Predict the structure.
Amino acid sequence: MPKIRCKCGELLRFGDIPCKIEYKFISDVEYDQYQEQIDSEILYLNMKSFLQCDECGRLWFFWDGFNNPPKEYVLNKISNES
Ligand SMILES: [Zn+2]
């Protein structure tokens, strides 16, 4: 099962289908290339993924597919929030 270790120590497993910590996205420019009705499987294959760590809220974006290391995005916590 594919997995990565988050900086907080949490193990992020993303082999489940559907995966609760994986989110799919597509740029507006790429989506704009689709016209009329589209096959959801084709759309799925052209979307990219990020994982959200339940523990610390970090996002790990796979901009270049799962075969390349993800980029880390850290939640900027505001000091008066708990
Ligand atoms: Zn984490």
Observations:
- Helices lie at 28-31, 40-46.
- The first strand starts at residue 3 and ends at 5.
